[in-house]
Structure formats: C-alpha cells, structure tokens
Amino acid sequence: MNEIRYSLIGKLIYCCEFDLVHRPISWVSASSHVLMLMAAGRGLLYWKTDPAHPLPVDGKKNALYYLPPNSWRFVDVSSRRPAHIIALHFEFKCEDGADFAAYYSLDPVFLTARKATFRRLLHEIARRYCVHDFGTTLECERYFRILQGYLCETLKPKENQIVHPKPMHCRAAVAYLQKYYCQTVDVHKLAELCNLSKPYFFALFRQETGMTAKQYLLKLRIEQARKLLLFSTKSVAEISQEVGWNDPFHFSRLFARETGVSPTGFRHQQAP
Fold first, then answer.
1. 8-157 maps to which CATH number?
2. Whether 177 contacts 216, CB under 8 Å
3. pTM, 2 dp
C-alpha cells in the first residue's frame, strides 16, 4: 500500500439502488465520489470528464465503475431488460479538510482486481442503508469502513504533488460545527475554541477548509437535510427545524439555491 501522509477521513454520503427509469437526480450529477455497480441490464455509460466515453456496461459482468466528483453522467440502456444500478456516494477528506483528490488518484485497476469484493460490499451496504435501527446502521457503517480500506490500498500520489501535512489550527471549530450544526453558531466561540483572534480565525478557517465557517455550516445542514428527505417521512417543516432553521420557507429557499431543486421536489425525484 502506498504511504498516505495525511490521515484520511472517509464518509458515506448515501447509497441508492434504483432502476434507471426512476434514477435519482443526484445520480446525474453529484459533488461526491461515486462507485457505480450495474447490477442488471446493459447499456453505455457517459460522463463528460472522461475522454474515453461512452463505455459499455453490462450487468451480467457486474460492471463496476468509479465516477469522479462533479461529473455529469448517465447510462443509455441498449436492451429491453431494465437497467438496475447501485450507486455509493462517498467522500474522502484529508485531516486538514482538503479533498484527497488534490494529492491522490484512484487506480482503476482496483475495480478489476477486487471486483467480486466490491460487488459484495456494495450489495451489503445498499441492503442495510435504508433500515434505520441502530444495529443495522452500525453494520452498514462497518461494511463501508471495509470498503474504505480497500479503496485506500489503491491510492496513487499525483505527479508533482508533494504532500506536506500542515497543522489544523481550526480542528476544534470543525469538530464543534459537525456536532452542533443544528444550533445557532457564535463565531466568537469558534475563535475561542481555537485560541485565535476573530480575524485570524476567519483567515485560517478558509485556508484550511476552503470555505468560511458560515459556508461550512450551510454545507453540513444541507447534507443532513438531504438525508432526512431521502430516508425519513418527516415533513419539510420538521426537517427545517431539525437541521437548524426555524423558518421552513427560508430553509426551502436555501435548499433550492444549493441543490437546484426544492426540498419537496428533491424528495419526489429520489422516490423509487
């Protein structure tokens, strides 16, 4: 395994299993990394960032692909058999908050070398992901951690990229936001947690995470709202309260601005 100089933090964003006619809008374009398993059917896979597209996909061969973030993708079905896809959305971050893709790339050979293993893990995660009891959730997370370990074995340093781990001055603020994202955030408190002056905290937080504390908080809230819309029956107003907005109309406007669709529309588009 290649040396990884940063500690990598893996996060399961969500896992969806669908027939192509009911594909979730997040499948077409996603800001996260995606592992795609063509479980049934046959077709052509396109995504704009790859000059080699289209690529043939065939469920009989358990076609497995890694799709990079922010890539627009779709599958054209070339048989009468329904196309069934499992898509695992995940995120890898370095300990300083940077995306690992800034320093590493995934070796596509791993899809061939461990095809059966990844296929099994994807099925195990998909089967458990929408079950909300505590034990099943832990099992789902366990399978994701196993998958994460196999992914780390495939990382290759990018050419001319020297990784120099830097101290995370704002680590305490990041941890606080991740835990208390649904509460009103006092920037002075965040700066105090990091033993920094407010102006210096602003500068360091943006430098270390690529965004302001306010933008980071918004990202956390939207991510949680997406999960609740997908995997709960709570109303939009209830979800708005749960993720930190007392005004559901304000929440809806922000959600639509960040995702391109209203909360209700997002839920309907994801429905099987």
1. 2.60.120.10
2. yes
3. 0.58
Please list, in sequence order, all residues whose beta carbon lies within 8 angstroms of the beta carbon of residue 220, skipping any fewer than 6 positions away: 177, 178, 181
Q: The sheet that has 84-94: what strands, in order across it?
A: 8-19, 84-94, 33-40, 64-67
Q: Does 171-270 carry CATH code 1.20.1070.10?
A: no
Q: Where are the domains positioned within the chain?
A: 8-157, 171-270
DSSP, res 10: E
Mean pLDDT by 10 residues, the chain (272 residues): 56 83 59 82 70 73 77 69 84 67 73 84 91 87 90 74 59 86 90 91 86 90 85 88 94 89 82 50
Segments of 41-94 assigned E as strands = 42-47, 55-58, 64-67, 71-77, 84-94
CA distances in angstroms from 218 to 29, 60, 118, 254, 258, listed in the order given: 20, 42, 33, 9, 9
Contacts of 195 (CB under 8 A, 6+ apart): none
Collapsing DSSP to helix, strand or coil, 75 comes out as strand
- Going from the C-alpha of 39 to that of each of 75, 224, 230, the distances in angstroms are 13, 28, 22
Q: Are 178 and 44 a contacting pair, CB within 8 Å?
A: no
* Beta-bridge partner residues of 72: 29
Could you count the other beta carbons within 10 Å of the beta carbon of residue 160? 5
Instruction: Report which of 161, 168, 167 is spatially closest to residue 103, judged by C-alpha positions.
Output: 161
Length of the chain: 272
Number of Cβ within 10 Å of residue 250's Cβ equals 11
3-state class of 13 per DSSP? strand
